[in-house]
Amino acid sequence: MPRFPGLDFGTTNSTLALAAPGGAPALVPVEADSPTIPSALFFSLEDGGTYFGRAAIFEYVDGAEGRFMRALKSILGTSLMAETTPIGRQRMSFEALIGRFLKHLRGKLEAEAARSEGGPNAVATDRVVLGRPVHFIDDDASADQTAEDQLAAAARAEGFRHIEFQFEPVAAALYYESQIEAEQLALVVDIGGGTSDFSVVRLSPERAKSAAGDRLDDILASTGVHVGGTDFDRVLSLARVMPGLGMGSHTADGKRRMPVWYFNDMATWHRVNTLYTAKILRDIRSLAREAAEPEKLARFEHLLVHRSGHRLAGAVETAKIALSETDATTIRLQELGLLLEAPATRAEFEAASADLVGRIGGAIDDALTTAGVGPQAIETVILTGGGAQVPAVRAAATARFPAARIAQSDAFGSVGLGLAIDAARRFA
């Protein structure tokens, strides 16, 4: 019996897993021996190569000349998908860029099939269950369906002929279900890089063994909101870093503030690359000539000239992670010609992200309302996704359920593992 793949294409990280019907799922090494790969690409202008994951990040951080792309999942369903972007001497569509990354992962699947003891037919390489958030796009059903269609088209173009989708929080629940011994009502809290999803699901060992298909009767509610880890990066950057680059500062005559949108885009992972144009550079230089504090705009100009925006975003992300463990840290970016240092405290971060946490709490309440159950009915809260490590997010997700068991699932692997379980059920 062949093993079937589940592919979790994430905003920040991606995984690939395999499962046979009735068997335990397992993650496939996707970068050296690692079961996770950052969802990042780097197109080198120095050697013409394309780098993926950690290798892409290394090339970019090391200062190699080229184009760095990350958080491509956040573009699905947006107007950016209709555009092309320059990669060296050519222009590529964002669908093709996503396809390039999926092709890389499919290559890992083919490599797994090649070394399988059962021969190449022991692994199904032409079919896949892809994870998707409950909502790619909030409050726009048409754009949401378009996003799913775009992801399917990108996967189909790279050799996946049979494609199914499963909600990411449901996939995490399926993985957790494979390990329990008694029936329970669970709330899955999946805080990903770009979205947060919540599902109320009936789970049991019997359902894990016998149920097939989409498990619709067991899914009491699935809600989601377009808030994820990268949004927490953005608000931290806007609060602590962008003021040092000119945000909020005035012109020399005191009549105007600097336009906000430049700084908002520089703080947003998937918008950074849109700033690397000759027009934007001219705009910033013009603003600097008018600015009361031109030295701040000079730092912003440096980021544009040296295409250092994602390096700054990475420094902010590192600080965000640190604030999960400590009360204070420093956001720091140092490179030739630039030193940025911005102190940040957990209290400041929580104040800046209060609206995001509130939207997550509201989506949890919506899930309970849709399911027709109160907080007391939830027996287990399953936490997954890197964003669930943020203390304020974790508190918002668990405070409503003081009597519930809190299950910390595999932060980065549980969705992929659950998708593989689902694939084995669907394709066997």
List the helices and strands and how they pair.
Blueprint: E1 4-8, E2 13-19, E3 26-27, E4 37-38, E5 40-44, E6 50-52, H1 53-61, E7 66-70, E8 84-87, E9 90-93, H2 94-114, E10 127-132, H3 141-157, E11 162-167, H4 168-177, E12 184-191, E13 196-203, H5 205-210, E14 219-225, H6 229-240, H7 261-266, H8 278-290, H9 294-305, H10 309-322, E15 328-335, E16 338-345, H11 346-352, H12 354-371, E17 380-384, H13 391-398, E18 405-408, H14 414-427
Helix pairs in contact: 2-3, 4-14, 6-10, 8-9, 12-13
How would a crystallographer describe the biggest sheet?
A: 6 strands, mixed
Using only CA atoms, what is the Rg? 22 Å
**SS content category:** alpha+beta
CATH class of the largest domain: Alpha Beta
* Tally of domains: 2
DSSP strand tally: 18
Task: Give the helix level as a range of percent.
Answer: 25-40%
Please, what is the oligomeric state? Answer: single chain
Our count of helices gives 14
Explain this structure to me?
The chain has 428 residues and is α+β, with helices and mostly antiparallel strands. The protein folds into two domains: 4-181 and 410-427, Nucleotidyltransferase, domain 5 (2-Layer Sandwich), CATH 3.30.420; 230-352, no CATH class. The protein contains 14 helices and 18 strands. The protein has helices at residues 53-61, 94-114, 141-157, 168-177, 205-210, 229-240, 261-266, 278-290, 294-305, 309-322, 346-352, 354-371, 391-398, 414-427, and strands at residues 4-8, 13-19, 26-27, 37-38, 40-44, 50-52, 66-70, 84-87, 90-93, 127-132, 162-167, 184-191, 196-203, 219-225, 328-335, 338-345, 380-384, 405-408. Strands 1, 2, 3, 4, 10 and 11 form a six-stranded mixed beta sheet that branches. A five-stranded mixed beta sheet has the order 14-13-12-17-18, sandwiched between helices. A hairpin with a 4-residue loop joins strand 12 (184-191) and strand 13. Helix 2 packs across helix 3 (141-157) and helix 4 (168-177) crosses helix 14. The radius of gyration is 22 Å and the shape is globular. The N and C termini lie close together (8 Å).
